[in-house]
């Protein structure tokens, strides 16, 4: 008999997040949490919920994969003509959320997304497996599947590039860099007294505030 959803409870107690654990720059903490998460779940640790404002003004969320980060923010790749791409062209503000269940941790990032250079998108596209590259040509991401099935579009794209060693990147596919403005780190604690710390960017660096759980 499955347990009633109302009675499912977990007491978070694995770790603490104290002021003395916090580096001056949040990218260092995010990198160390990503490193730890990758040792537990090497395949899915870089999955994050990307929340955007749709072209119609309504919120939308979906999972995308973090592909790289630096001191200013993080990058993901997608179809620029997808629903998210259309929304981002009007409202570039985004929120990114990671949840690492085994570590009892969440990170929430707010920032502004901008398209990366075509050269950087080309370089990443070239590193993808050939069938993923062909898939980027075949899929009209977020559009209703037409009479022509996805499989037949895939086959047509495969045939189109049959004699090409290097498949070019479609102009509608590429990366975004999210320039982060704030990052909030959440560590689950017993009795719901979780530890939350928020870094906010200001002209002289980062401010740090502890938030009530
Ligand atoms: C684990 C996982 C990883 C995903 N990674 C990506 C990704 O990196 N880029 C992407 O465009 N979609 C990715 N998706 C698919 C998106 O969640 C989404 O279905 C797609 O991008 C269309 O979103 P949209 O219609 O809101 O634009 C992923 C889905 C899952 C479950």
Low-confidence stretches: none
CATH superfamily: Electron Transport, Fmn-binding Protein, Chain A
Which small-molecule ligands are present, each listed once?
Answer: flavin mononucleotide
Kindly report the CATH topology: Pnp Oxidase, Chain A
Query: How does the major sheet shape up?
Result: 9 strands, antiparallel
The percentage of residues in β strands lies in: 25-35%
Alpha-carbon distance between the two ends: 33 Å
Number of strands: 9
How many discrete structural domains? 1
| Mean model confidence by pLDDT | 96
Written overview of the protein:
There is one protein chain. The chain has one domain: Pnp Oxidase, Chain A (Roll). α4 packs across α5. 25% of the residues lie in helices and 34% in strands. The mean pLDDT is 96. The chain is globular. It has helices spanning 26-40, 83-90, 118-127, 130-138, 150-160, and strands spanning 47-53, 59-65, 68-69, 73-79, 93-100, 105-115, 173-187, 195-202, 205-211. Strands 1, 2, 3, 4, 5, 6, 7, 8 and 9 form a 9-stranded antiparallel beta sheet that branches. Residues 47, 60, 62-65, 76-79, 82-84, 141-142 line the site of flavin mononucleotide.
Summarize the model shown.
With 213 residues, the protein is of the alpha+beta class.
Feature tags:
nine-stranded antiparallel beta sheet, 213 residues, Pnp Oxidase, Chain A, alpha+beta
